[in-house]
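User: structure tokens for this one?
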Amino acid sequence: MRIAVAGATGRVGRYVVEVLQQGGHDVVAISRSAGVDVITGEGLAEALRGVERVVDATSGPSPEQQAATEFFTAATANLQEMGNRAGVRGMIVVSIIGIDRFTAGYMAAKVAHEKAMRAGPVPVRILRAAQFHEFVGQIVEWGRQGDVSYVPRMRTQLVAAKVVAQSLAEMALQPVPPPAGSPPFREIAGPRPEDLVDAARHLAARRGDQLRIEAASNPDDPDRALYESGALLPGPNAILAGPTFEKWLESN
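Assistant:
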């Protein structure tokens, strides 16, 4: 099958490309470095020629709600419009567990992303994933102030990006839309719930970093209680796969 991967050089996309190529599929890598821009549409029509499926693993350049929403809606409009013209038969989108309950920030932007995708002419399947193992280091850097990093209180079920990519690749080979009666999305998470602050401390210790990790909470965030209460934990039918964060650290 000829499959395009949008965000092909990103955290998940590069693994999707790898898994699909290992399976013998013809993979079209969509990224700015390959001369294709999902926001401006430059090179996109040509990249989608002859493509049967698109895996959307794009991620916005900013965690801020407005910037992320603008990114996702613009990218979706181009992927759907040009994909429909090219005869793409289905799209697979990576999203985040629990976003229906969120009203602000990056989570709200992902809600807009899902809605825009579902409103398009090309049928869509959605994989909602827990936060990636790789996300912990990013959060630590975002919160760094001198020798302290302020990490938000969050309960999640961290999962490896490569595990998510394997599931996306599998879904790309399945019927789109799914059979009648199937759930509107699939969930994937790691093997156990974890606390983001604890994970950040494990990461600092593993690196031998003297950085002190402090728990933080933004009183102006209307969704802060959701992050802390477990709204990001998977449902009972989620796929649970891959190593715990500690085990993943040992091999990375």
